[in-house]
Amino acid sequence: MKAFFRFLYEIIGSPQPPADTPVYRDVIFPNIGLLNLGLSLALVVVFYYVINRAMGVATFNKGRHWGIFFFLNAVLAFIIAIWQANAQQATEHSYIYWLATWNAVLGMLWFFLFSLLLRRGSTNASTTPF
Amino acid sequence: MAAALLLAGCYSREDMKSEDTATVSKTTPSAEEKPAAPAPAASEPTVPEGEQPEAPLARAAIFLEVSGSMEGFMPKPGASAENTRFQQHVAQFLSDVNRSTAVQQKQFFRIKEKPYRDSYQQLSSTVRGGIREPAKSTDIPSVLDTLASHYYEPNTVSVLISDFIYSPKNAGAIPYIKTDITDALNRAGRSDLAVSVYGYTSDFHGTYYPALKSGGAKRANCCDTDIPYYFWVIGPADAVRRFDAALLSKQPAQQAHFGVKYPKPASSLLSKFQNQGSWYYGDAGASKRAAGASYHTVAVSEVSAQQPVEFVLGLNLAPLPALYNDLAYLKANLQLVGVDTDAKITQVFAANDQTRASSGPESGFTHFVKVRLTRMAKAERPLQLVLNNKRPAWINEWTTKNDSNINQAGAKTFAFSSLLDGVEAVTTSEQDSQPVFNIPLILQPAR
Lengths: 130, 447
Prior knowledge:
The complex is a heterodimer. Chain A has helices spanning 2-9, 21-54, 63-87, 95-118. By secondary structure, chain A is mainly α. Chain A is elongated, with a radius of gyration of 16 Å. By secondary structure, chain B is α+β, with helices and mostly antiparallel strands. Chain B has twelve helices and 20 strands. Chain B has a seven-stranded mixed β-sheet with strand order 3-2-1-4-8-5-9, with helices on both faces. In chain B, strands 11-12-20-17-14 form a five-stranded mixed β-sheet. In chain B, helix 3 packs antiparallel against helix 4, helix 5 (140-150) packs parallel to helix 6 and helix 6 (177-186) runs parallel beside helix 12 (416-427). Chain B is elongated, with a radius of gyration of 27 Å. The A-B interface holds A 2, 14, 18-23, 25-27, 30-31, 34-35, 38-39, 41-42, 45, 89, 91 and B 2-3, 5-6, 9-13, 16, 19, 271-272, 275, 277-281, 286-287, 289, 299, 301, 446.
């Protein structure tokens, strides 16, 4: 699993500065990777199953409502990456923001994929976003 | 609920212990294949020797030579009441030994034809007040033989204070000085015999007896020049090392050590101290960054002439004698031994206020060695930092072939380097002298 997250996050290049590489590979990448997956899944579940099924809200199932969750997910993914880098005392470097941006992009991807997989189970939003 | 599940999935450094042991066991079979790689010392925690309190030595015996040639060091106080640096220094040293807690039993001896037991007060007053009945002459090999045969016990040392002017019976015996010393020390057949030699100089007011009689007999009312005298600490290697550390570490002396073995000093790579290029700790568990952990594996992700890698190895040499803390000695004798790499030492420097005050791991080290490389092998290779045990330069500078006109020769001792040749022959069993220490490192390409 570590290898998978390492592959995923090193698509944008090796961690910087080089001295922090072990911390990024062994701690930060798996942490933000798992958190990101979990966060996307949680938001998808909240949108399709909590709001649009269990709570039966009928006015929150349009594409723009899905978009709100989509971007909320991206912003949280960005924040999670920066928080993790700081929590693990990674050296301050512009790389952290590139990593956070990449994490946000990946977050959007997960959110989209989970949406495709899980939307059918929703009563009110089974055709959102399309 | 979901959040709790997520957090449980999180990695933290503490959780990773199990994974690390898994990776270690995975890499072990491949480690056997690599060419003559030394076992990485990173896994075993190196406790700095100076920090753990050592048990005191059972006994230290201080021997002061009181032959006529020593009288000039210890002149009887005249009207001028001047004393020599020898008197001040040796009296202070005797006092230091006498109240030291690092030695349980202290014994003091005058050396004439044979050692005579003195009390501290008696010996100290001899040093201060001059020699009462000087011995005719003492023969250095027989003194060394006595010390190595009768005063050699585990956990004890003998300290011989003398001018070490050894005059062979005739000129034909001069080439055999080395052999005489070797035989004298070897007679008792001590396998772990070690000798630490400390050299000092003092003003000298008295009769000087040159070793070479050919150039003229003794010189009264000598000398205009300083005369060297020496402390030789003789005993088992471990006891000598501990005595040196306890009582002679702060002496501003010239020194040389023969057969003394030192524990490997604490060391670690420093990945965030004057580092350059793409490299990081390749040790297992480096991401945990545990306090006090040491690292010895350099994982290089990219290196070329345009993008050289520079790393700094921190060393804590405080438990070693001053000789091995001396920057000039370190610069001349530190050596990197590696294969398939052009790694070179570019800089050796001591800790300064900045490194000591640093919050990083560099604050725990007394010396730093900076290594630069521009190419390396495609696979893992060992790299060793070795401190060679070379005889310090002062020994030859303090040696003269002819001391019959000592004022002209200066502060030198007759055939001193030959004496030490003899010591070295006894204390080093192999042909090659063992290094003071070596620190195995590993250079590996980043995976």
